[in-house]
Amino acid sequence: MVVNAEGIPIRTTLDNSTTVQYAGLLHQLTMKAKSTVRDIDPQNDLTFLRIRSKKHEIMVAPDKEYLLIAIQNPCE
Amino acid sequence: MHRTLQITAGSVILKDNLPVNQVNSCFEADPEAVTALPRHLRLTSNQDLGPEVPPEDVLGAYCHPEIYPLVLTNKTQEIFNCRIDEDVTDEQPYKLIRKEDIFSDFENRAAVSDFYPVKKIIQEYPGDELLLVYDKDFKYGLNFYLIGTEEGKENYLNPPEVPEEQEECKEHIPEDTYIYKPPISKPWVSLGSEKEIEEESVKKSTKEITYMISRKRSEFGAPVKFSDQNASSVKDAYIECTAYPDKNFTLKQLERDVGMQVVPKIKDTSTQTRWTYPKNATTQYYPREFSEEEKEALGQSKTLTEFLNNVSISVEIALQQNEIMNTFINDWKSLAEEEGTFGDKTDTHLKEYQSFTDLHNLTEKMITCVSWHPFIYGLIAVSVAVRLSFEERVHFSGKLLLQPSLILFWSFSDPIQPQLMLESPDDIFCFQFCPSDPNIIAGGCINGQIVMWDITAHADRIENIKAGGSRSKNVTLKPMFLLEPETNTEAMYIRHCAVSSIENGHRKAITDIHWLPDTFEINRLGSVFENRSGISCQLVTCSADCTICFWDIRPQKALTPQPPTEKKKEESIEVPFDVPSTFLHLNLSWKPLSKIRLSKGETTLDHCPTKLSLSEGSLLYKAQDKMLAQSKAMKAGEMNPYQNLEGGLGNHLKPIDDFCTKFFVGTEEGEVIYTDWKMERDPETGRFMTKKPLSLYTVHDGGVHTVQRSPFYKDIILTVGGWNVAIWKEGIMTGPLLQSSCAPKRYTSGHWSLTRPGVFYIGREDGYIDIWDLLEKTHEPAQSQNICITMITYIKPWTFSAKQQFIAIADYYGTLHILEIPWTLSHPSTNEVSSISHYFEREVKHLEYVEQRKKIREEEKKEMEMEKKKVETYQKSKEQLEAKLKMDYESYLELEKNILINLGLIKVEETMSNMEMI
């Protein structure tokens, strides 16, 4: 799904409630991750965020204005 | 020698420091006399006597005790005419005085008389005249002395021979008297004591300084004025002794004991808040969302497209990575599991645990079917049948009627007594516990009847079986012929509660019976419906009369009205009182729901099914199923749904579509048939008919006695019969996946392993059990173990726990052996399921390949035959061949010669000889 800078989903392939939930939570997490990376090294920046859980893997690609979130089931 | 002279008032004491026994003379003297004392005797206070007194005289006075010194005054001298220098001179210092004169003096002058001190002596004087001697030299201390004794007087008067007399006196004196010799003073010899005295004496060492301070008289008593003054300002006002660091006394401290304590900084602060009453507050929110138009607008924007372009690459890479490999796999863990099984017990043999034989019955029996109780540990049911062929049965039929045919319940705790004995009208060849309620048992009889038992009444008996210590105390092992079955009060005979109708059921022995699972139902036409009652209520049987029947245990709504007379007849059948009435409605009137005849097509010979296997046929019990069954029963609100079977009929059932109604059948001839039970409408006759079998294979050389689905795969079936084994996959019509070669001995029973997907057990007719492991060897059994001496009739493994797995093996002689399956055979290795499934897939592909190869081969064969016809074979004659060979040889020799000449090894002359030799 594609989410804007404030966490409001723009385009999605999932149902509405799930989308809204994912967008809100992941947006905050991405901001936190970004600030963490910047704090450690101001020259650095977050390019990709991957969260692997038991059931699936969540991939977040941040940008200046938007956020692309993909959820995948790993083959195993 | 010191002498002290003490002068007290009126007395003079002359003391001497002589030993005590010396006489100290003490005499009185009047004051006048005191002044008369010679100067040297006049003492001032405490003045020592100097050495002026001649010690000899003093001594002399004391050596002569009769001498009494006297002081005579002038008056006394006149009286007695002893005036000094007149009467008493140096030539004649003595004077004799008459005693009477003294006495008269006494009378005259009393105490004043000078003779008064010696009055007593004068009175005691024996003589008349006393000698008074003038002591000019004061030998005896005073100017006159009186001699107190006559002897002394005579001694004095006769003095000229004094020295000689004295010497003689000296010699005589020690004999007679002790004469006091006064100490003679010698000159003082210094022995060093004066030095001591000097040392000891205290003398003033310091010179005494005297200060004389004077002041003006006018200033005496004037008031004093005090003022301050700085000490340093005035010169010499003070003397100071400044301290200076002395190197001898400075110590450098090298070590110091210091204690430290860390104390947390504690700060107490307090605040005061205003506490108002608690109030519930809620918030409600909804997420911000874009409206559809906004979304579309955004979707079209350039920024979004750019973003997507930039980002999609990385996301794709990540996605692909995940697809390729799981990076988070824990390799160690997967390794460890495999190691564990190897390291453990390497014993792969089945261990004998227990064996049961019925000792009561006299006839020789064989075990036809074995079934473990679904959830009671250690309870196994065995159906026994007589070991007689058909002819013999007929022959002995009378005798056989007397003996009951039984299903025995054995428990691990009691190897001698069976716990329960179910009675049946005839020998049972197969039976099954009902999956929903293990107290219901359905068995197929040799005469074609289905027999039902209900042992709910005795359920508690078998559930609480413990090691029969108390029971078997009195029971001793008696020989078989002594034991009578009637005295056996422990195991009870339980009569069957229903049998199927004889006319409408099977004609021949029932070879297999199965309960349909409680998930679906079948109606008369074979259509599958949903099963709402939650219990297994239908059975399927197949028998030697070439039919397969479906039965329903619920009371049927009579389709055709039965004549009331027949009903009455049936009702009048007496039922023994101890038989539960669960299936009373079925008793003797039970008809099958539908019948399927396995016909071979045009011929009248039909297939004789021996075993069936239905899809969804995993009728194996696990503990969870029991719980599910119980919960389902509770939901229905009844304790035992089997008591009230009528209730389930009235429901409208939903048909289940897409249900696989096909099943496998094994036959007596060794065929494996895959057919459908659903009836179809025959287009010609309009009746419902069974479909033709979808596939038929004659694989086995003998009757198929095992058709079983694998507990792990729904579509893998094992068939055992004759001398070989086959594994089939449902859906593959081309043939078995695996077909083993002929074994040396006939296979008589078989079963899949319950826990390992690639293992199955085959029993042989010589009492051996072959354990096949598809992962190890596929052409022969992995292991073979001897169990008993006779044919194995039935194998049934069962799992009680992860550690305990048993296999029940029944043999032809009626003994049931229970063996324990070792670890290696009971525990699957990791990925065994997937390995076996891969194996089967490979086999499927192999079959396909074989099929293809067959086709290719056929084509090739055709081509070969074509080529043969086309190509003419040219046969060379024999002589021509020889000539050709010779020419080849000669050309070779020439070649050899040329090479050797070129090399220079052979001379030309020799070559000539070589040619001749040839």
UniProtKB/TrEMBL annotation, chain A:
* Role summary: Acts as one of several non-catalytic accessory components of the cytoplasmic dynein 1 complex that are thought to be involved in linking dynein to cargos and to adapter proteins that regulate dynein function. Cytoplasmic dynein 1 acts as a motor for the intracellular retrograde motility of vesicles and organelles along microtubules.
- Report the family membership: Belongs to the GAMAD family.
- Per UniProt, what is one Pfam family of this protein? Robl_LC7
The entry's protein name is Dynein light chain roadblock-type 2 isoform X2
Biological processes annotated in GO? microtubule-based movement
What would be one Gene Ontology cellular-component term for the protein?
cytoplasmic dynein complex
Location relative to the cell: Cytoplasm, Cytoskeleton
Q: Which residue numbers delimit the Roadblock/LAMTOR2 domain?
A: 1-72
Q: Which UniProt keywords apply?
A: Cytoplasm, Cytoskeleton, Dynein, Microtubule, Motor protein, Transport
Q: Which gene encodes it?
A: DYNLRB2
TrEMBL record, chain B:
State if Coiled coil is listed as a keyword. yes
What Pfam families does the record point to? Answer: WD40
Q: Does the keyword Coiled coil apply?
A: yes
InterPro entries for the chain:
Dynein_IC, WD40/YVTN_repeat-like_dom_sf, WD40_repeat_dom_sf, WD40_rpt
Spans through the membrane: none
The entry's localization annotation reads: Cytoplasm
* GO terms, molecular function: dynein heavy chain binding; dynein light chain binding
Coiled-coil region? 847-898
**A cellular-component GO term for this protein:** inner dynein arm
Which keywords does this Swiss-Prot/TrEMBL entry list? Coiled coil, Cytoplasm, Repeat, WD repeat
Q: SUPFAM superfamilies this protein is in?
A: WD40 repeat-like
Entry's Gene3D superfamilies? YVTN repeat-like/Quinoprotein amine dehydrogenase
**Gene Ontology biological-process entries:** cilium movement involved in cell motility; inner dynein arm assembly
Q: Which domain of life is it from?
A: Eukaryota
Assembly state and interactors? Interacts with ACTR2; this interaction reduces binding of the Arp2/3 complex to the VCA domain of nucleation promoting factors. Part of the multisubunit axonemal dynein complex formed at least of two heavy chains and a number of intermediate and light chains. Found in a associated with the catalytic heavy chain DNAH2, the intermediate chain DNAI4, and the light chain DYNLT1.
Protein function: Acts as a negative regulator of cell migration, invasion, and metastasis downstream of p53/TP53, through inhibition of Arp2/3 complex-mediated actin polymerization. Via its association with the multisubunit axonemal dynein complex, is potentially involved in the regulation of cilia function. May play a role in osteogenesis of dental tissue-derived mesenchymal stem cells.
UniProt-recorded name of the protein: Dynein axonemal intermediate chain 3
Q: Which organism is it from?
A: Delphinapterus leucas (Beluga whale)
